[in-house]
Automatic annotation (TrEMBL):
<dbReference type="GO" id="GO:1990131">
    <property type="term" value="C:Gtr1-Gtr2 GTPase complex"/>
</dbReference>
<protein>
    <recommendedName>
        <fullName>Ras-related GTP-binding protein</fullName>
    </recommendedName>
</protein>
<keyword id="KW-0963">Cytoplasm</keyword>
<keyword id="KW-0378">Hydrolase</keyword>
<dbReference type="InterPro" id="IPR006762">
    <property type="entry name" value="Gtr1_RagA"/>
</dbReference>
<dbReference type="GO" id="GO:0046982">
    <property type="term" value="F:protein heterodimerization activity"/>
</dbReference>
<keyword id="KW-0547">Nucleotide-binding</keyword>
<dbReference type="GO" id="GO:0005829">
    <property type="term" value="C:cytosol"/>
</dbReference>
<dbReference type="Pfam" id="PF04670">
    <property type="entry name" value="Gtr1_RagA"/>
</dbReference>
<dbReference type="GO" id="GO:0005654">
    <property type="term" value="C:nucleoplasm"/>
</dbReference>
<dbReference type="GO" id="GO:0019003">
    <property type="term" value="F:GDP binding"/>
</dbReference>
<comment type="function">
    <text>Guanine nucleotide-binding protein that plays a crucial role in the cellular response to amino acid availability through regulation of the mTORC1 signaling cascade.</text>
</comment>
<keyword id="KW-0342">GTP-binding</keyword>
<dbReference type="GO" id="GO:0010507">
    <property type="term" value="P:negative regulation of autophagy"/>
</dbReference>
<keyword id="KW-0539">Nucleus</keyword>
<keyword id="KW-0458">Lysosome</keyword>
<dbReference type="GO" id="GO:0071230">
    <property type="term" value="P:cellular response to amino acid stimulus"/>
</dbReference>
């Protein structure tokens, strides 16, 4: 009884120089690796498909630049690669000299733009944990300026680059990824609208729709996002999945740590309640509310039921539009 979300998964390409942090980003965001463990990662030196599409809402590939990539090389099928891509994330190591990275950014963007002009170009100014606040702003300004000058020199001033300051040592990498993914979801306004309706009728302060595996939020209601609330919700997902893995699986290790029955309520000692519930195979709703509001639990459950049905409908319609046929809801 799962929605056929997979037909519509946003595809993302991660590129950048060697050692810029691509594998670390992949491991931390999609494989729960702790940031310190990335110190011992083997560097990637080829195109690496990380098939997380069976466990995540997001379809994601890494593409490394081991030194000189030759776009004229006939074995290098950039048409095929860029054509299927919704967003191209280019990672720049902010702790290193970034001149060469900027050159590669320009070459890559020119090439990708020729193949598919509507790719979203996203630049992660990465490893900013080592930089002071002033230095961060200055680096972002400098990279922004140079990257746009380079594009103008190549007569590509039409191309829009978005910039994010990121680090795997805090939640900035998840926040940046969330924004990148949200731009790729055509149903975003509908999802936001449904979240707004749900929270205003249920006395809920804040609600996020999360991709459970990556802890990227694919939508939230229109009230501003407070980083602490987001982190709290991320931590809740970790706790719920960890507890399910330990106690929720069958004796033979089979079963699933996250399924239709997944539901968790955590009461904090400051009269705040955290509420998590499964929405689709990949997505969970995580809400923050006051204890008083939680007294009307029946109402929240009823509203959630309506919300969940609406979300399934949104994705079923999307899948049907894409394939031209109405898929059964079991795909
Ligand atoms: P790749 O070759 O682009 O895949 O780069 P890696 O993922 O192998 O990362 C190279 C090094 O950068 C590793 O030692 C990581 O621990 C380190 N690294 C990655 N992300 C960050 C970050 O956000 N901050 C800091 N300080 N180091 C990072």
């Amino acid at each position: 009884e799962e929605s056929p979300v997979s037909a519509d998964q946003p595809r993302i390409l991660l590129m950048g120089r060697r050692r810029s942090g691509k594998s670390s980003i992949q491991k931390v965001v999609f494989h729960k690796m702790s940031p310190n463990e990335t110190l011992f990662l083997e560097s990637t030196n080829k195109i690496c498909k990380d098939d997380i599409s069976s466990s995540s809402f997001i379809n994601f590939q890494i593409w490394d630049f081991p030194g000189q990539v030759d776009f004229c090389d006939p074995t290098f099928d950039s048409e095929m690669i860029f054509n299927g891509t919704g967003a191209l994330i280019f990672v720049i190591d902010a702790q290193d000299d970034y001149m060469e990275a900027l050159e590669k950014l320009q070459v890559t963007v020119s090439r990708a733009y020729k193949v598919k002009p509507d790719i979203n170009f996203e630049v992660f100014i990465h490893k900013v944990d080592g930089l002071s606040d002033d230095h961060k702003i200055e680096t972002q300004r400098d990279i922004h300026q140079r990257a746009n000058d380079d594009l103008a020199d190549a007569s590509l001033e039409k191309v829009h680059l978005s910039f994010y300051l990121t680090s795997i040592y805090d939640h900035s990498i998840f926040e940046a990824f969330s924004k990148v993914v949200q731009k790729l979801i055509p149903q975003l306004p509908t999802l936001e609208n449904l979240l707004n309706i749900f929270i205003s009728h249920s006395g809920i302060e804040k609600a996020f729709l999360f991709d459970v595996v990556s802890k990227i939020y694919i939508a939230t209601d229109s009230s501003p996002v407070d980083m602490q609330c987001y982190e709290l919700c991320c931590d809740m997902i970790d706790v719920v999945i960890d507890v399910s893995c330990i106690y929720g699986l069958l004796d033979d290790g089979s079963g699933c740590a996250y399924d239709k029955e997944s539901l968790a309520i955590i009461k904090l000692n400051n009269t705040t309640v955290l509420y998590l519930k499964q929405v689709t195979k990949f997505l969970a709703l995580v809400c923050i509310l006051r204890e008083e509001s939680f007294e009307r639990k029946g109402l929240i459950e009823y509203n959630f039921h309506c919300f969940r049905n609406a979300i399934h409908e949104v994705f079923e319609v999307a899948a049907a539009n894409q394939s031209g046929v109405l898929k059964g809801s079991d795909s």
